[in-house]
Specification:
heterodimer; A: 468 residues; alpha/beta; two-stranded antiparallel ribbon; 13 strands; B: 63 residues; mainly alpha
């Protein structure tokens, strides 16, 4: 096994014991990027020299007895939406071409304090406004999309181009690429992790979090980045628990909600089968299954877009007027249309959001977590505009990509996506575990229980060129 | 509520109110605006009564 194939947890164990050095690990990852980048286009910027220097410094510190913990010397990819001091930070947009900030986003600073080694900036769908990431291809089949908007991080983590890829999630942008690329992805509770220094798409829906190979890897990253930031107005001032302490505690007696509506409507048969099989695994591990009905199913996408679009257009209001021609056409259209949504419709969506949040709280009176498909299908082909369902419905591909992930953005609840199988094309499929606000520990424990009992989590994608 | 009307030059009017120049782009924006409003109008089905908006969103249920 090459070092780039290791999970964060496995690499950290070897680094701490001295059987693997940060420099060996970083060189292995940089070689893997060299091998795969032409096919994948996962990175907006690769910083090999800076990574080698950081790895050498980590190696000296560890040799001197200053080991910082499990993230020390681990290669990291950072979504181009995040500010990184001294590195291009463009949100994968010509609007910000050449932009090099002087400071790091708070989450990046915390990961650097923990000793991580940045190997590059990963592509985002422009300004995170889409689920496709057109610059990038899926490492399981390069004729397909990686999902988005954190598609570069999904592709890079799945292919071995970094152990952790940071993402952001406004309508599913961590979990969508995690599901389509076969990685684990964690959207923490709204406010759990500071978003300061990360370009906003929608202030009231934005979350930041990691994509990684395993559930434990995500727990370790969350431990480093979680915490109150008084300069992020969405930040929640609550204690940060030990996210790894109870990871292997099992799920005997845990009440697992299985939706009777919404989440299993219009999903591919392979998704239905894989997720229900995974739910069976959880039951076999001692979980108690409870059927639940999802409230306000017809208002999920309506509320999501009625909130997201005006907030995005407000963020871009000035540059849409001064640099409109520098946006890609798709982003420009969405920003222009967002300017035409009435304030009363925006407020109505926020009022429905209040009811939705209360109804989800009531639903959780009888369950500890909800499990459901992350995506209705495996990775779509590049250029696919619609998903066609057996009932004759042709669903816009972007709407389909965010349909099952948006509820956790509207409610702010933590959601973990993990791979639970493959479709008939050999493409990975994801299941999400949604928990109570600020209860990432339980969400991670459920994911870890599944991970321990299956062989679907932690695989490296082979980087397969288009068929035919 | 009654259906929204997009007759005449609604995109041009909306853009002028927003102080946004979309000259020559109206035909491209029109279907997207109609599609988004068709989606948003599903919010009309929810009786809201005195429900306040989730401004300054806080995820905590007991906050």
């Amino acid at each position: 096994m090459e070092p780039f194939e290791l999970s964060l947890t496995a690499a950290a164990t070897e680094i701490e014991s001295g059987t693997l050095s940060p420099r060996e690990l970083t060189e292995s990852v940089l070689r893997r990027i060299d091998e795969t980048e032409e096919a994948l286009g996962a990175f907006a910027h690769v910083c090999g020299d800076a990574a080698r220097k950081a790895a050498a410094q980590a190696e000296r510190e560890i040799a001197d007895g200053r080991y910082r913990g499990p993230l020390h010397g681990i290669p990291l990819g950072v979504k181009d939406l995040y500010d990184t001091a001294g590195l291009p930070s463009t949100s994968s947009s010509q609007v910000r071409a050449g932009r090099v900030p002087e400071t790091d986003a708070v989450a990046v600073a915390r990961l650097l304090d923990a000793g991580m080694v940045i190997v590059g900036k990963t592509h985002t769908h422009e300004f995170a406004y889409g689920g496709l990431t057109p610059t990038t291809r899926n490492p399981w089949d390069t004729s397909r999309i990686p999902g988005g908007s954190s598609g570069g991080s999904g592709a890079a983590v799945a292919a071995g181009g970094c152990m952790v890829g940071m993402g952001s999630d406004t309508a599913g942008s961590i979990r969508i690429p995690a599901s389509l690329c076969g990685t684990v992805g964690l959207k923490p509770t709204y406010g759990r992790v500071s978003r300061r220094g990360v370009a906003s798409l929608s202030w009231s829906l934005d979350h930041v979090g990691p994509l990684a190979r395993t559930v434990r890897d995500c727990a370790l990253v969350l431990q480093a980045i979680a915490g109150f930031d008084r300069l992020d107005t969405g930040s929640v001032d609550v204690p940060v628990p030990d996210f790894t302490a109870g990871l292997d505690g099992g799920i005997v007696g845990l009440r697992v909600g299985v939706p009777s509506n919404y989440f299993f409507d219009r999903v591919h048969d392979d998704v239905d089968r894989s997720v229900r099989t995974a739910i069976g695994v959880l039951e076999g591990l001692g979980a108690e299954l409870r059927e639940v009905s999802i409230p306000y199913p017809d208002q999920v996408l309506a509320a999501e877009w009625a909130i997201l679009m005006p907030e995005a257009s407000a963020y871009h209001q000035e540059t849409l007027r001064s640099k409109a021609e520098l946006y890609t056409e798709q982003t420009r259209v969405l920003l222009e249309v967002g300017e035409m949504i009435l304030a009363t419709d925006y407020i109505k969506a926020l009022r429905v959001r209040t009811l939705m949040q209360r109804a989800w709280a009531d639903m959780f009176a009888d369950i500890d977590v909800l499990v459901a498909p992350t995506e209705p299908f495996g990775a779509p082909l590049v250029g696919a505009m619609e998903a066609n369902w057996p009932d004759g419905v042709a669903e816009d591909i972007t709407m389909a990509l965010v349909r099952l992930t948006s509820p956790a953005n509207l409610t702010g609840m933590p959601s973990l996506s993990l791979p639970v199988g493959f479709d008939e094309e050999g493409l990975p499929l994801g299941m999400q575990v949604i928990g109570r606000p600020l209860d990432e520990a339980t969400v991670l424990r459920v994911g870890r229980a599944y991970e321990s009992a299956s062989d679907t989590v932690g695989r490296i994608a082979p980087v397969v060129p288009p068929k035919g | 509520m009654t259906a929204r009307s997009f007759s005449g030059d609604p995109i041009g009017h909306a853009a002028r109110i927003a102080r946004l120049d979309v000259t020559g782009r109206e035909n491209m924006l029109g279907p997207v605006v109609e599609g988004i409003y068709a989606l948003i109008d599903q919010l009309d089905e929810v009786p809201l009564g005195e429900t306040p908006p989730a401004i300054g969103f806080d995820p905590r249920w007991e906050a």
